[in-house]
Hints:
Distance between the termini of chain B: 51 Å
Mean pLDDT of chain B: 88
Shape of chain A: globular
Number of domains of chain B: 1
CATH topology of the largest domain in chain A: Rossmann fold
Helix content of chain B: over 70%
Shape of chain B: globular
Oligomer: heterotrimer
Largest interface: A-B, 44 and 44 residues
Distance between the termini of chain A: 41 Å
CATH architecture of the largest domain in chain A: 3-Layer(aba) Sandwich
Structural class of chain B: mainly alpha
Strand content of chain A: 15-25%
Largest sheet of chain A: 5 strands, parallel
Number of helices of chain B: 11
Helix content of chain A: 40-55%
Number of strands of chain A: 15
CATH class of the largest domain in chain A: Alpha Beta
Radius of gyration of chain B: 19 Å
Strand order of the largest sheet of chain B: 1-2
Amino acid sequence: MRLTRRNALTTVAAAAALPLIRPAYAQSSASKSPTIKIGVLNDQSGPYTNTGGLTSVACTRQALEDFGVSTKGMNVEVISADHQNKPDLAVSIARQWFDRDNVDMLLDVPTSSVALALQSVVREKNKVYLNASAASSALTGEQCSPNFISWNYDTYMLAKSTGGAMVKAGGDTWYFLTADYAFGKQLQADTSALIVKSGGKVLGAAQYPFPGTTDFSSFLVQAQSSGAKVLGLANAGADTVNAIKQSAEFGLNKSMKIAALLMFINDVHALGLETAQGLNLTESFYWDMNDRTRAFTKRVLPKTPNNYPNMDHAGCYSATLHYLKTVVDMGVVEAKKDGVATVNRMKAMPVEDDCFGKSKIREDGRNLVASYLFEVKKPSESKGPWDYYKQVAMTPGDQAFRPLAEGHCSFIKA
Amino acid sequence: MIMIFGIPGPLLFGQLLLGLINGAFYAMLSLGLAVIFGMLNIINFAHGALFMMGSFAAWMLLNYVGIGYFPSLILAPLLVGIIGVVLEKLVISRLYKLDHLYGLLLTFGMSLVIEGLFRNGYGSSGLPYRIPDILQGAVNLGFMYMPIYRGWVVVAALVVCLATWAIIEKTSLGATLRAATENAPLVQAFGVNVPRLVTLTFGGGVALAAFAGVLAAPIYSVNPNMGDNFINTVFAVVVIGGMGSIMGSIISGFGLGVIEGLTKVFYPQASATVVFLVMVIILMVKPRGLFGKTA
Amino acid sequence: MFGFSRTQSIAFVVMVALIVICPYVLYPVFLMRVLCAALFACSFNLMIGYVGLLSFGQAAFFGMGSYVAAWTIKAWHVDASIAIIFGGLTGAVLGLVLGYLAIRRSGIYFAMITLALAQMVYFFCLEAPFTGGEDGIQQVPRGHMFGIIDLNNDMAMYWVTAAVFIGGFLLVHRIIHSPFGQVLKGIRENEPRATSLGYRTDDYKLIAFVLSCTLAGVAGGTKALVFGIATLTDVHYSTSGEVVLTTLLGGLGTVFGPAMGAVVVTSMENYLAQFGAWVTVTQGAIFCVCVLAFRRGIIGELGALFKISL
C-alpha cells in the first residue's frame, strides 16, 4: 500500500477521497485478490481524541506495514471516521461501510454506548468487530456476540488490577466518585464487588452528572469526611484529570489514596507529573515496558509525533496484525465471506505481537492479555519525554479477567 | 455534632462555601455575557470558547514566553480581548440590526471553529498548569480544609465583578455606554464614536471571560472543551438574573453556585439540572428575570 | 388542495421524484436519516417560521417520541405504525404540558424556557429506568408495518419513512394554509391586533406548538425504528441546536427550506465524518458564512433570486 507511507493527516484525507475514485480503483484491482477493508471508527473531535483518534489510525497502518501487506501481494485499505460519540451516527456510518464500502472489519470504537449499539449491526451483517477502547465488560458478557473481540481491557480487569492491589495494600475502605452513566456505574459496580469480596468496604459514592461537571470540590469534601482510605475515580478522560487536579488542591492526596480506575498515559501527560505522581492505574501496555514495546513505539512515533501510544492504540495495532494473519491463514475470499468464521479462526490462533507479547482469545471474545498496575513516577524519577510509569504488579492474562462462567454470555451456552 | 437535614453541620457549611466559590466563576462569566448582551444585544454563544482561550493564553504565555501566572492575569485577557475586538470588527458588527437569533447562531459557529482549531493543535486531553507558589497550600477552617487558591479566586472574582459594575453604573464612561445602547444616533450626535465604544465593550466582555479562564487554568483541566460545561449554566444564570442586568448576573451567579452546591449534597445526579429548574420557576414568576428591565 | 402555488407544485413534484429515485442511487439508510431530520426540521419550522417562536427544546419531543416508540415496539411488540403513533402522541402530550408553561413568553425568553424544560426532560431520560440511561434502548426490532410489510428490508423501511415524511410535510403545509394558519400568521405579524380582533392568541399558539411537537415525536419514533436505537443524543440540547441550524440553513419560514437544510446538514455530518478532527471546524465555518452571507437560507436565497416563493 502506497498510502501507508504518508503521514496520518493526509492519509485520512486520502481515505476520505477514496470513495470518490472507487469505481476505477475497484476495476483495476478486480483481477488481483479482493481488497480487505478495515474501518477505524472512533472519536476524532471530542473528549477521547487523544486516547484514540488519529493515533489509532496510525497504529492500524503501522500493523499493515509491519505485516508487509504490499510484499505479500494483498490489497488492504484502511478508512476511518469520527463518530462524535453519537450512537446513531455510528450506526449509520457502520451500516454504510458494510453495505456500500464493503468494509470487512470494524476497529477501535470507544464509548461504551456506541460500542454496544454497533454490536447488533455487525452481527446482522456478519462482519468482524474488534474493539480496542470501549470499557464495558457487558460487551463480552450479557451483550456478547460471536462476531466480536474485546482486545485490551475492560471494566472488570481494571477493577481487579487497581482495586485488588489497593485492598491488598491496606486500602480497604472506599469512597467512589462516579460519572453518572453506563460506563461509570459499571466500573463502580465491578470494583465494589471486588472490594467486598476481598474483605473491604464501600463507604459511599457520589454520582455526578456526566457530561457537564467540571468542579468536583464538593464531592471531594464529602469523600474526605466519609473517612474512607481510598478514593475510587470511576470516570475517564477530562473528568479524571479534573478530579485528580482538584484532589491535590484539597489535600486529598495526603489523607487518602487515589485510585484512577481508568486512566491512560495521555491523561498523565495532561496532568503533569507533579500532580499525577504516586497515582496507581492499570494499563495492559506501556511503551517503555520492554525492548519490543520500545521498538514498536519507535516505529509508529513518526506517524503520531505528539501523542505516544497507550493500550488502546496498541490494541488497534495488535488486533489488526492478528486479523491480517488470520485472513492470510484462511484465505481472503473466505475471510470476507463470513465474519463469525473469521472470528472463530482468530480465537483458535495464538496471538503474538510486539505490544502485548503472547495472549489467547477466549470463546466469548475476550482477549486475555496481561494487566499491569503502574505507579506514576515522581518528576525527579522521570528521565525523558513520556517516561511516566513504573510497574508495581502484573496479573497474567488468564487471571486478569472475569471468569467465563460469570459473564453469562448467551452464545456460549448454545 | 450539629445535624442539619441529616447532614453534619460543618459539612454543610463547607458545601455552602464551595458553592460560593463556583458561583464566583458563574458570576464572572455571566457578567461578560450580560455586558455584551446589554450593550450590543448579542447573545454570545462563543463565550465558553473565549473562556477556554483565556486558559490557553495563560498556558502559552508560560510555556512559550515564560511569563508566569500573575502577569498572565493581565496579559491573557488583554490578548484574548484584542482577538475579541478583531472578531467584533470583522463579523459580529454586521449583525446588530438583526434578530437575536442570528447573533446566537454566528457565535455558535464561531465557538465550533475556535474549539476545533484548538483541538487540532493541542489535542483533547488537556494541558497542565500549576497553582502559583504563594497560593499553594490550604488553611484549616475548622469545618473544612480550604485551599488558599480557592479563596483567592473568590476575592479576585468579587473585585472584578464589583469594578465592572461600578464602571458601567457609576462612571461617566458607563453613562455614555448606557446612553449609546438606548439611543445610538443621539449619542453619536454628541460627538461620541459609538461603533468604537461598542467594539471596546465587546472586547471588555471577552476579556472578562478570558480572566475567568486564567483563574480556572490551575484548578480545571486546560482543554478545548472546558467552556462547554460552563456555557449552559452561565446562560441560565444570565436569564435568571435578567438579561443585560449587571448586578442581576453577579447576584444570581453566586446564588446559583450555592444552590448547586447544596444539590450536590442531597441529590448529586441532579446538580447540573437544578439550575434549569430554578430558571423555569423564576421565569414563571418574573418573566424578565430577577433584575431584568421590563420591556 | 394543499394550497401550493404553481412553482411550489413543481418543486413538490421534483422533491417527490427525488425521494423516489434517490434510494436507487444513494444509500437508503443515509436517506432515511435525512428524511427523519427533514420531518423534524419541518416541525420546528412550523413554530419559528409561522408562529415566530424559537423553541430551543425541540429535542425533548423528538427524543421522547423516539424512546416511547422504541419501548412500545420492543416491550409490547406492537405494529410499527402503532409505535410511530405512540411516538407522536408522546410528543403531543409532552408538548401540551411544556407548551402550557412556555407559551406565554416570547422571543428569547420563550427560547430559554423551552431550553430549560428540555433540560429537565433530558434529566428524566437519564435517570428513568426504562430509557436505559446512557446506553439507551438498544436492538429495537423494526417489526412489521400494518402487519404485512416486513421492515427489516431497508427498502421497505425507506418507503415507510418516505411516506411518513411526505405525510408530515403536507400536513404542515395544510395547517399553514388553513384559516387557522392565517390566524397564526396574523399573530406573528401583530399579536395585539389579533387579540383585539377577538382571537385568543395563547390558545392558537399552544395548538400550533402541540402540532409541532407531535410531528417532532413522529420524526423521533421513525428514527428509532430506522436505526434500532433510542439514545440520549436525541434528547440532548445539541440536537435542539442542530434543528435550529438545519432550518436556518435551508431557509426559515420557507416550505422546502427545512428539507433542504436536512439534506445539507446530514450530508455534512455523514461525509465529513471521514475528515475526523476537521468536522467541527468545517461545520462552524459553514454556519458563520451562512449567517453572514446567506441569511435567508439556501431555499430562501434561491426564492429571492428567482422572485418566487418556495
